[in-house]
Amino acid sequence: MAVRNSFTHIEKKHKKRPGVHAKSKSSNSKQSKNYKKKYRGQGR
């Protein structure tokens, strides 16, 4: 019989980021609704 580990699930607590707010309405992550490509020029 296998030994069962007592740590089955560790909850992730939400990390607070005081004082952080977006200066611009753009984001680097593609899934974001505010996604903007850095370079909109041809070939980039």
Task: Pick out its properties.
single chain; 44 residues; little secondary structure; 0% helix
Radius of gyration: 21 Å
| Range of helix content | under 10%
- Biggest sheet architecture: none
Structural class: little secondary structure
Give the tally of β-strands: 0
Q: Please tally the helical runs, counting DSSP H or I stretches of 4 or more residues.
A: 0
Mean pLDDT: 78
| Cα separation of the termini | 58 Å
- Morphology call: elongated
In terms of DSSP E residues, the strand content is under 5%
Uncertain regions spanning at least 5 consecutive residues: none
Give the SSE layout:
Layout: no helix or strand
Describe this structure in words.
The chain is largely without helices or strands. The mean pLDDT is 78.
Short description:
This protein has 44 residues and is low in regular secondary structure.
